[in-house]
Amino acid sequence: VRLGPDGTSLIILDQTALPDRVEERTLTTVEEIEEAIRSLRVRGAPLIGIAAALGVAAITRRAAAATEDASLPLAERVTDWCRRLSGARPTGANLAWAMARLERAVREREAAPPGELAELVAAEARAIHEEDRAMCRRIGEYALELLPDARPFEILTHCNAGALATGGIGTALAPVYLAHEAGRAVHVFADETRPLLQGSRLTAWELRRSGVEVTVLTDGMAGALMASSRVPDAVLVGADRIAANGDVANKVGTYGLAVLAAHHGVPFYVLAPSTTVDLDTPRGEDIPIELRDPSEVTEGFGRTTAPRDVDVWSPAFDVTPAALVGAIVTERGIHRPPYGDTLREAMLGAGGTTGVTTGEPRGRDP
Amino acid sequence: VRLGPDGTSLIILDQTALPDRVEERTLTTVEEIEEAIRSLRVRGAPLIGIAAALGVAAITRRAAAATEDASLPLAERVTDWCRRLSGARPTGANLAWAMARLERAVREREAAPPGELAELVAAEARAIHEEDRAMCRRIGEYALELLPDARPFEILTHCNAGALATGGIGTALAPVYLAHEAGRAVHVFADETRPLLQGSRLTAWELRRSGVEVTVLTDGMAGALMASSRVPDAVLVGADRIAANGDVANKVGTYGLAVLAAHHGVPFYVLAPSTTVDLDTPRGEDIPIELRDPSEVTEGFGRTTAPRDVDVWSPAFDVTPAALVGAIVTERGIHRPPYGDTLREAMLGAGGTTGVTTGEPRGRDP
Predict the structure, then answer these.
(1) What is the pLDDT of residues A180-201, one digit of tens each?
(2) Residues from chain B contacting residue A211 (CB–CB below 8 Å)
């Protein structure tokens, strides 16, 4: 995602068109931005937050330039836009976090002239984007410490927690990209991730474009893979929200993978920026889980794949209990159980070091 | 499946067209029958055996009537057809079993005149079909003993082990149909079962047609279901081959369900006719697992769902180790661990009683 040339529009890569077509869309209203988030044209918890922030920056600039429409003070309108977009998808923590951050920035300077306010919002949105890009690399560097360093490694991932889901090189895929950049052999097994196929459509697409070897399998084949001779070195996934106790909401299907990984003794790691950690949500059961429209399951491919009007249950996310998570990796370090303590310390502590990993990440020649 | 009006053709319901269209096809050559099996127009381990047997009966009658083409004795030609069809799909036990049974019947009477031989084959094929129909009901009656009898019950199933997969009321779905016939409330959660969606296309279709309540979910949602307040009373699945030690090959994704069921303490039962038990295959690792074409994963719905030429791993089946199987139910009874003993006794013992369940099944008012 990026701002248009004059900074008054948001340009997105429409992820619903991939891998068939690489299509950009230019959005100029809050309605268009909301639609793009709800329909998953823009998706991935960190990227949604970035896109909404840049989007609010674009429409704020546009509003600041349009002198005629000033029935409400601009600061109030920005607040309205932030709250509206904040509710576009309920599960991910980063969207609400980014919108609250813009709101806070504007509230502190609400008397500023429109042009100044618009620049303030734009600067905050750019900062959110830049910080995310940096967080991705740090996550990758820390995560490499958890992976074999003396030989090629293979990982299994679910959904898309790559470059397409973030402002940088991804979260779950960050160590993969860093290893690949360093000339190491690395191989990714990508669950296709029904219903919307973010694994086969997006993860496979971005890895291939970067020259990383990838093999697609259906979600139900992960068990057979772990029982085979090619058991992966680790399961790496992103997260949409991490509760204070370490329970992790992520794309539906993640929980089943975590159970399989535990059964096979395969390490299961969650990689996400600290903006995904929500200390105000005590446990996984407190995370609201978005239910998606049945048509994504029954007609997702331009063909009817179930009887008309059949009952469908389609949660977009599931919750993996902390007990199944071997480590949570953020840009602040490698966090280990008990997460109630280590996450709180890492999120609230000065400098962001954890009780477990301190100092600079030791990523291998990124 | 059934024979055409003059007994010289095989009529099948083309399951690849469901649930959109109910289309029958008439097959008259061994090539057509083989294609129908390979392409899954006819699928379900028991039904494949029945279809192949009726198919050989049809082409044998046709050959017996066609006097000109007699370069080979008819008995030898029947043997050739049986061996060819036997190899159409490698994993399921019932196809090879049915073809071996026809071969044996013909070999015992190979000198008989063509017309007589054709009637013999037809009688044997009809017997295979009728026996399967009866086995389905017995499986259902035994399986009901494992399910709650004082209240409505809910089960989770994978793929299609229903009427469409057998000559009767199915295997995994047999207790569901018997309970429904008896006026009991019963509800089925059906995994859609990627890549070919036998759950959403076939299981949901046949249950709705019979008035049984069904809810479709994607394969990756089964974990969320088990962690929810609607945890099913049992997971019921069919089987393509059961090894002598009780390891079960079934549609890929079954193994992951078995691990989830164990994790949540949900009973996991395998329901299949005794023709699926293969005492000549000692363990699961000895079962050949068919690999399917990548296009079933990447272009299965008339739309490209992965980058062109991406690497795909697509085993059609996986193996669930006996340790995760709470019971195997055949028409001979409820078999419990250690399966190495109980299955052998049930399959080889006179009358087919097992060490565990004896006598008539006590199914509830079927």
Answers:
(1) 999 999 999 999 999 999 999 9
(2) none
Q: What is the edge-to-edge ordering of all strands in the sheet holding A277-278? A: A277-278, A241-243, A248-251, A317-320
Mean pLDDT of B185-212: 97
Q: In what order do the strands lie in the sheet with A24-27?
A: A2-3, A10-13, A24-27
Chain A environment of B204 (Cβ under 8 Å): 306-307, 310
CA–CA distance, A73 with A109 (Å, rounded to integer) = 12
Min distance B216 CA to chain A CA atoms (Å): 5
How do residues B102-130 score in pLDDT, each as one tens digit?
999 999 999 999 999 999 999 999 999 99
Question: Could you give the maximum distance between any two Cα atoms of chain A, in Å?
Answer: 68
pLDDT of residue B300: 73
CB contact under 8 A, B307 and A205: yes
Query: Within an 8 Å CB–CB cutoff, is residue A224 touching chain B?
Result: yes
CA separation for the pair A225, A264 (Å, rounded): 11
pLDDT of the residue at B118: 96
Kindly determine whether residue A215 and residue B297, on different chains, have CB atoms separated by under 8 Å: no
Between the alpha carbon of residue A216 and those of residues A156, A229, B258, B313, the distances in Å are: 10, 17, 22, 6
| A109-129 pLDDT per residue, tens | 999 999 999 999 999 999 999
Reported pTM: 0.93
Q: B247 catalytic, yes or no?
A: no
Facing B201 at nearest CB: one of A201, A253, A305: A305
Q: Which three-class secondary structure state does DSSP give residue A96?
A: helix
Q: What are the structure tokens assigned to B283, written together?
A: 């363990």
Q: Which residues of A are annotated as catalytic? A: 240
Contacts of A303 in chain B (CB under 8 A): 20, 301-303
What pLDDT does residue B349 have? 81
Please check whether residue A272 touches B, CB under 8 A: no
Note which residues in 108-127 of chain A have CB less than 8 A from chain B. Answer: none
End-to-end Cα distance, chain B: 24
**Distance from C-alpha of B134 to C-alpha of B128, rounded to nearest angstrom:** 10
Note every long-range contact of B355-363, with CB atoms under 8 Å and residues 24 or more positions apart, other chains counting. B357/B142, B357/B145, B357/B333, B358/B333, B361/B138, B361/B141, B361/B142, B361/B144, B361/B145, B361/B333, B362/B141, B362/B144, B362/B145, B363/B140, B363/B141, B363/B142, B363/B144, B363/B145, B363/B175, B363/B178
Hey, is the C-beta of A219 within 8 angstroms of any chain B C-beta? Answer: yes
Q: Are the CB atoms for A189 and A257 separated by under 8 Å? A: no
